[in-house]
Amino acid sequence: xxxxxxxxxxxxxxxxxxxxxxxxxxxxxxxxxxxxxxxxxxxxxxxxxxxxxxxxxxxxxxxxxxxxxxxxxxxxxxxxxxxxxxxxxxxxxxxxxxxxxxxxxxxxxxxxxxxxxxxxxxxxxxxxxxxxxxxxxxxxxxxxxxxxxxxxxxxxxxx
Length: 159
Description:
Layout: E1 3-6, H1 9-16, H2 20-25, E2 39-42, E3 47-49, E4 54-58, E5 61-64, E6 69-75, H3 77-83, E7 85-87, E8 92-95, E9 109-114, E10 120-122, E11 127-135
Antiparallel strand pairs: 1-5, 2-11, 3-10, 4-9, 6-8, 6-11, 7-9
């Protein structure tokens, strides 16, 4: 079943600190209109992002997906268009097994960089990216894959 959830308070506290009020008040990603494809992800931190500077933004969100789904994270169009704010990795790929695996709860982070020529203020609760849930296919003649994910970002890379 596809769904967004808050990370545990323990995970939240590791990244944000002890702030139960913020934990209880932030919202899960939502679509803003009935025909929107993307779910808006909001920042849990405040940051003045200077030109050339990047910031890692915790979302406090994890996402349960069907086995043949992927969550793609892209910067909000208005941030790129109006302010030249970019997602550092261009497109974030959140695989179904990133969620609650052996050593990672599945906390989704977004890293932005200011490629513009003026400061950009990120506020707590401001939408910074959007997530698109996409069903994908695989090749028919693929060899069976039996390994499981056991970590977070970059954990499926070649060793």
